[in-house]
Amino acid sequence: MSMLEWVKQEGKQNLILFVHGLKGGMETWSYDEKISFPTLLNMEESLKVTHDIACFNYFTTFTNSYGKGSNWVGRMFGSLKKTRKNLPIDEIAELLRTEVQVHLSDYENIVIIAHSMGGLISKAYILKQLDENKLTPVKGFISLAVPHSGSKLANIGGLISKNAHLKDLGILSDTVYTLAQTWLRTENKPRTKYLYAANDQYVDKKSALEISATKQDSSAVDEDHSSICKPKDNQQTVYKAVLQYILEFNTETLTIEDYDGNEFDEEYFVLKLVIADVHETITGHAKEYFYNAELARKIFTSDSDRKNLDTLYKRIKHLYQEEYEKYLVNKDTSDSLVSSLHSRIMSEEGSYLKDLLKGAESIHKKGMLHQLANKKDKIILWSDKTCLSDLEKMKAE
Fold it and tell me: N or C: lower Cβ tally within 10 Å for the chain?
């Protein structure tokens, strides 16, 4: 039996996936019997042709009771119903990983909207994906009142309950600490947006905004811990903010329908990636970023645009030089070098790579990196063993 509940399943290339929190379920997202966060998004014209919508539902309750059996024999064999119990966050993340692999593998881009503990589950799943494959289908992550640093009330509850979820949610718990530290140092994470409830009595602002959260990627809403995920209509601030985030993710991740994945095979930036033995998936993404950057360059034609572009190219080149030095010192793989640069460009978009070019997203800036590599020179190489003469040999073959 699948742990997914579908709101819309029409075979789109992109998916919005809701992940509820402690003591949650579909009711987490429901304002009343007719209105819920998923159903409101399902009515959005801007998403109808691009996204399917589903909810990941896992078992959670404050009790660990198995029923009314008078002894352990009765509890184990008194019913044919499936025994359910609260699982640790890490194990629920494994269940989510299985659901994605089995049921959602056809989706090219996934946006996760997670509430409270659901955000920690989602982070654990994303980290497992990145550790295993260096990539994740999750291209956008929206955090709604997620206790990234734990919850004080979970600590208090943990004193009177052995509930696995309360234990994981406590401030300075091993789970919270490990997730926070691993997330902070992991490259190639999805773009993340943080919303915190100003009237939240369970997750305070400090916990709801992760250490790495920037002002650009975080916002306050006039809600509490429960109402932040139950908008009553499409005019609510939290709803509009989430929709805006999804549309931002779209500009960076939606598949380009007229893009031919093989059209750049003989370009220098691709040959450099091939010589360095960079994984074909990362190389494929580099081609798409390059395509986007080429389209963007055709848009920015004024003198002021070109001046801003020139500044951006110089800064991206500087980021490459910094990461290449780390690559040499740490003796990393070429995959790690490319991945870390893609992640670095995304993380620096709101600061070092901030620019005046309206419409220049991080996907374009990652493409600009590969534009710089599209020459037969040593300005940008992905391996210290790359020989420039090999480029011409590959071109001739």
Answer: N
**Distances in Å between the alpha carbon of 9 and those of 46, 251, 351?**
16, 22, 38
Helix axes 362-372, 280-299, angle to 10 degrees: 100
* pTM attached to this predicted model: 0.61
**CB contact burial 129-158 (16+ within 10 A = b; e otherwise):** bbeeebebbbbbbbbbbbbbbbbbbbbebb
The span from the CA of 212 to the CA of 192, in Å, is 10
In angstroms, the CA 279 to CA 273 distance is 8
With CA atoms as reference, report the closest residue to 365 among 325, 327, 313: 313
Could you report the per-residue pLDDT of 344-369, keeping only the tens digit for each? 998 888 788 887 776 677 888 999 99
Residues β-bridged to residue 170 = 151
From residue 45, give the alpha-carbon distance in Å to each of 3, 49, 60, 243: 27, 8, 34, 11
Secondary structure E strands in 42-171: 51-56, 109-115, 138-144
At 162, the amino acid letter reads K
Q: How many CB atoms lie within 10 A of CB 292?
A: 21
Taking the C-alpha atoms of residue 53 and residue 5, their distance in angstroms, rounded to an integer, is: 9
Place of tokens 């030095």: 325
CA 81 – CA 94 distance, rounded (Å): 23
Instruction: Give me the pLDDT at residue 258, please.
Output: 52
Outline where DSSP puts E strands in 20-164. 51-56, 109-115, 138-144
> Cα dihedral sign for 32, 9, 235, 113?
positive
Across 258-270, b (16+ Cβ under 10 Å) vs e yields eeeeeebeebbbb
* d(C-alpha 107, C-alpha 93), whole Å: 19
Where b means 16+ CB within 10 Å and e means fewer, 166-187 reads: bbbbbeebebbeebbeebeeeb
